[in-house]
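Quick start: what a row looks like.
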Amino acid sequence: MLAKPINSYRPYWAKRFGPAPMLPMSRTEMDALGWDSCDIILISGDAYIDHPSFGMALVGRLLEAQGFRVGIIAQPDWQNASAFKVLGKPNLYFGVTAGNMDSMVNRYTADRKIRSDDAYTPDAAANRRPDRAVLVYSQRCREAYSDVPLVIGSIEASLRRIAHYDYWSDKVRRSILVDSKADILLYGNAERALIELSHRLAKGEKVADIQDVRGTAFLRKRIPEGWSEIESTKLDRPGVVDKPVDPYEMKLGKADASCATESPTPASEQGNAVATIALPVSRKPKADRSKQVVRLPAYEEVSQNPVMYAHASRVLHLEANPGNARALVQRHADREVWLNPPPIPLTTKEMDYVYDMPYARKPHPAYKDAKIPAWEMIRFSVNIMRGCFGGCTFCSITEHEGRIIQSRSEASILKEVEEIRDKVEGFTGVISDLGGPTANMYRIACKSESIEKSCRKLSCVYPGICENLQTDHTALIQLYRKARAIKGVKKILIGSGVRYDLAVKSPEYVKELVQHHVGGYLKIAPEHSEENVLSKMMKPGMEAYDAFKAMFEKFSAEAGKKQYLIPYFIAAHPGTTDDDMLNLALWLKKYDFKLDQVQTFTPTPMAMATAMYHSGKNPLRKVTTDSENVPIPKAGNVRKLHKAFIRYHDPNNWPMLREALKKMGREDLIGSGKQCLIPAWQPLSNKPVTTVRGEQLERTVRPRRMAEGKRKYS
């Protein structure tokens, strides 16, 4: 997979202005930099923080390094177009994003209730971005300057590049390209596409003519000449599937002179002799995959037929490997949404180039002393890699960043640690995290580049770790040791994101992690205890958790430390029944876990679990009308019940749980016995008390009850 290095382009003429202390957000700042205009203006739903963990800053600094003058309009007032004119008319294009998060996930809870705060806004103020921010911002950009090219990207646009189920309206919506009227969409990690697009526009090419860049999507009227079209239903046919004829099969037939075997047949068997007859094989010339496009079912079809929606989702995910993916096309009325194959992953040298930009590593001065929670959380952390080959069906990381791990060099990472020490105000010697989408996939890859290019597996670690995946953690161990040896660094913490089924393949890594990089608690995510639910998540069974837990406790004891694992679980995931949640609650009680934080499944666009939620089918296998039906906890009361099972210790949940247990015929679990899940009595009031019990920092209550006219306390 060869691609032009992103740092090999000839810089645009405006490179002479040099890097800005902060990318400008006002005409005053532009004047101070000597700019009469911006070449590119980025619109974002987040506050502007000049740090590589924030997409707007990363993209802005990358374009600046290419020589372009980049302005930023952060969290504009979307009620009219005037806020989109504050920096004037861009010379090349508007780049529109919703921010680091999907705006709907950012603004609404899993129960579709509006959140009271926004971590990406100064002082966590709510309502600073609109619903479906990319659509709204795009409309205002068109109103401001109708002739300026409109480029959309970020996770919100990326995950809506084809027809997608929208949880908040409970319907299948059109591709965001159609609704936003954007000229082009950049999906996934878009550095490569963004740089090529920008330079080609700067040279005078029309945006409508740029249709050959990987990692882009756009609208066209028809399939261009020279392309062969393949119906997705022929690749992965929904419906009854006949056993295919194998042209290489060797059939048995009556022997004849032309097919006599070399070994003579005994005379006693010659009357019924059989011989091997080779079937003739007609071979077709190998197709040019670079000129093949897979046609997904049209929007009009997937919006009405959930089975076809699940089928389209499955094919999209199977065509996600940059090494073998083909272009995709999906009709929307009289227009075609065309998706070029995914971008080629960045090399280590290119990753270093992206992260070694002159970031100020702080919020824009316009915010003064306001606290921005997202910044406070990551200000002392370092991103060492991107991508995830886990393939969890409920997660959007794989869909957005891809399955191929892209790692920075050790030198680049250590340099950033030193920059935090020297530049970030308030640094006390503790690096809060050294990781990425996962903590321990740094420099882990397929053993064979050719196998990696041809692979279509949805996960490298499910149902088990692939035999072609090298699981050596040596590079990460060495990085940890060198990072914590830096002068002025007291502690390097790894707080979450450990893929524990991968970690147990390297006991040395687990020992290094547990004895040097855990600050008392380590968060891990088994997500559930029941195999039938885990299979819909593509998560490992609890035996992997048990193995990691044993190592964790062993190495903690060797270091003389009392440390705890904090597991995360998901309620109401597709495939989950009430019995599954009850079994999870009993597992939690068995190990004395009382969890405060519970995640209820939220169907996000393009996730495979969302296809399950909408269709009731399992897209991890070939989807047919009579294929596996997946139980879906959709009703509000069911989702609340599933969450209540995880928080079985909360007295507020006991009435609901009692009713459910009676309906399930499990009244034996109601009472005061050790085997019981919840008591038969209800407290009069709840007074929160923070304690530590077992393996979990919990919030407990002292419940009060009335019995036989006498007040008793439990």
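That is the whole record. Residues 222-238+288-333 form one domain. The longest strand covers residues 564-571.
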